[in-house]
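Morning. Coffee machine broken again, so started the prediction first thing and wrote up yesterday's gels while waiting. Chain of 180 residues, entered below exactly as on the submission form.
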Amino acid sequence: MTTISDIEAMIGRMAIGDRAAFTSLYSATSAKLFGLCLRVLDNRAEAEDALQEVFVKIWRNASRYQANGLSPMTWLITLTRNHCIDRLRARKAASGDMEEAADIADATPGPEALAIAASEGARIADCMGQLDPDKSDAVRRAYLEGETYDELASRYGVPLNTIRTWLRRSLIKLRECLSS
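Came back before lunch.
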């Protein structure tokens, strides 16, 4: 597990041109930063490009980082978020003027689609309510919030295989409930 001081040390070594530190920092942080890029940009290819550009910025600006007792991840996340927001602004600026926008079909769902979605949402909530509270919570955390099996096992104090069984059986029950 990479600690805050490990990340600070990597950034410090990068400031003096240590490529191995760059590789280590990338390995330790790229997954989290990519997730942020993907959330902000909502486009996998663009998120991959943005992540690459962010790491170039990190390499170039490593000497500007100052250890101040705050998490170095805050600095990395801020750089990433700001870069992605800049890309969004550039995307919107390049998309044309308002006359062109008027010709684009409205992608928002209509009243019928909203009614169907609300009905489906109510069915899902009803089926989730039929599960044990811990199992329902585990399903939400795993499939909506992205928690890993290991994190769930720690949270509920049960073995990893028990979590897998909970989730598998819960999904089977949900499928049966939703298909009836």
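The chain has a mean pLDDT of 85. Going to sketch it on the whiteboard this afternoon.
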